[in-house]
Design a protein that fits this description.
Blueprint (H helix, E strand, L loop, with lengths): L6 H15 L1 H7 L5 H8 L3 H29 L2 H19 L4 H29 L2 H15 L1 H14 L5 H20 L15 H13 L1 H31 L4 H24 L6 H25 L3 H27 L6 H22 L9 H22 L4 H10 L2
Helix pairs in contact: 1-6, 1-7, 2-6, 2-8, 3-4, 4-5, 4-6, 4-15, 5-6, 5-9, 6-15, 7-12, 7-14, 8-12, 11-14, 11-15, 11-16, 12-14, 13-14, 13-16
InterPro entries: Efflux_drug-R_Bcr/CmlA (IPR004812), MFS (IPR011701), MFS_dom (IPR020846), MFS_trans_sf (IPR036259)
Pfam families: MFS_1 (PF07690)
Membrane topology: Multi-pass membrane protein
Length: about 400
């Protein structure tokens, strides 16, 4: 069936799934240039505006856990369609928020609904592909979905240049309508009835128990989750750091922030392009080492109050390391989980947003004019991700040691 796709059909399939995967970055990044404006309009502190991002991240994390499990029971298409309908309604609700607390609650629902697109798109990939084909297709999917962080803040700043932050959420609602149409007319079911798990709460819990007992799966999940959780400190902190500390305009902020979409693409495509030469596991380690080096540089720059370019450059390569680690860790974690791909994808998706919901508000603890918390969080995330790799993935068993020597790790 789909395993025999032509190159043209494969690209079209990736574009469809990429549209749903990109919903996360658009939901998170598109309103970032509006942070100072939202704070001013509601007469609130930066930390409360950042809490709206935290609420969205919690929704994205918890939602993936639920929607991924439901997709193992009811198939991929129906839960995806329902989540997109909820998403468009929640986006329009954000647009009419009368105060910051209503916005925070609406952002949670919006994030919860957006999670369906992210987790189910990844589960569909595992339904259709395996082995190196899984890595190559996931790399193609990342290429498409990683364009979103490049476009979203630029689009957001463009919108607020001629209207208010409300316009951002109206546009997100329109995107939700388009995705409902795509899910209805373009997406076919990829999980046959005989491959679905029973509608049994205990069985679903046992699926997660199985995943938690898989030491290597948890190692890959933690390495990926901690790294992406760390980058949300960057996502939450840079709107204030670039605009308040360095005096960047919303348009310049959008360009600087959006340029990191390029670094995400570079990091992910290096893995996909050379997967047949260099193992995914080696790419994962290389990405983690790169993140350690660049996050250390970021911390030094913020401690010394370096100029803007000296902060932007290491952040560019830090984000590239995220592209490498995410693209390499996903197929490694999912390869042996075909029978519960939805639950596995959900757990992989939960950890980054759960950790991101913790790191996002911590960036603002020292106020709008300090970048030190962001630097500390980035280097801490890099260190903890390396620990997850060495203590869980690269465990000292005979087979793994032999494999590590063969790979030169």
């Amino acid at each position: 069936m789909m395993k025999q796709m032509t190159s043209r059909n494969r690209l079209g399939f990736a574009l469809i799934l990429g549209a749903f995967s990109a919903l996360g970055p658009f939901t998170i990044d598109m309103y970032l240039p509006s942070f100072p404006e939202i704070a001013q309009q509601f007469g609130t502190k930066a930390s409360l505006v950042q809490l709206s991002l935290t609420a969205c991240l919690i929704g994205l994390g918890v939602g993936q856990l639920i929607m991924g499990s439901l997709s193992d029971v009811y198939g991929r298409r129906k839960p995806l369609l329902i989540s997109m309908i909820i998403y468009l309604l929640a986006s329009f609700t954000c647009a009419v928020a009368p105060n910051i607390y209503f916005l925070i609650a609406s952002r949670f629902i919006e994030g919860f609904a957006a999670s369906g697109g992210i987790v189910i798109a990844r589960a569909i990939v595992r339904d259709v592909y395996s082995g190196q084909e899984l890595t190559k297709f996931f790399s193609l999917l990342m290429l498409i979905s990683n364009i979103a962080p490049l476009l979203a803040p630029v689009a957001g700043s463009g919108i607020i240049s001629f209207t208010t932050w409300v316009g951002v959420f109206i546009v997100l609602g329109v995107i939700g309508i388009l995705l409902v149409l795509i899910a209805t007319w373009q997406l076919h079911e990829t999980l046959p009835r005989e491959a679905r798990v029973s509608n049994n709460t205990m069985q679903l819990l046992m699926n997660f128990q199985t995943l938690f007992r898989d030491r290597q799966f948890i190692g890959y999940a933690l390495a990926q989750g901690i790294m992406i959780g760390g980058i949300f400190a960057y996502v939450s902190g840079t709107p204030f750091i670039y605009q308040k500390i360095y005096g960047a305009s919303p348009q310049l902020f959008a360009v600087l922030f959006g340029s990191n979409g390029i670094s995400l693409i570079l990091g992910s495509q290096v893995v996909g392009r050379f997967a047949h030469i260099i193992s995914e596991r080696r790419f994962l380690l290389l990405g983690l080492l790169l993140s350690g080096l660049t996050s250390s540089t970021v911390l030094v720059v913020v401690l010394l109050h370096g100029p803007l370019f000296s902060l932007v450059i290491p952040l560019f390569f830090f984000v590239a390391s995220i592209g490498m680690t995410s693209t390499a860790s996903f197929p490694l974690a999912m390869e042996s989980q075909s029978h519960i791909a939805g639950s596995a994808s959900a757990l992989l998706g939960l950890l980054p947003f759960l950790l991101g919901s913790i790191t996002s508000p911590l960036v603002g603890v020292a106020g709008e004019y300090s970048a030190i918390p962001m630097g500390v969080i980035l280097i801490s995330a890099s260190f903890l991700a390396l620990c997850a790799y060495f203590f869980l993935v690269r465990r000292p068993t005979v087979g793994v040691i032999a494999d590590s020597h063969q790979l030169g790790l």
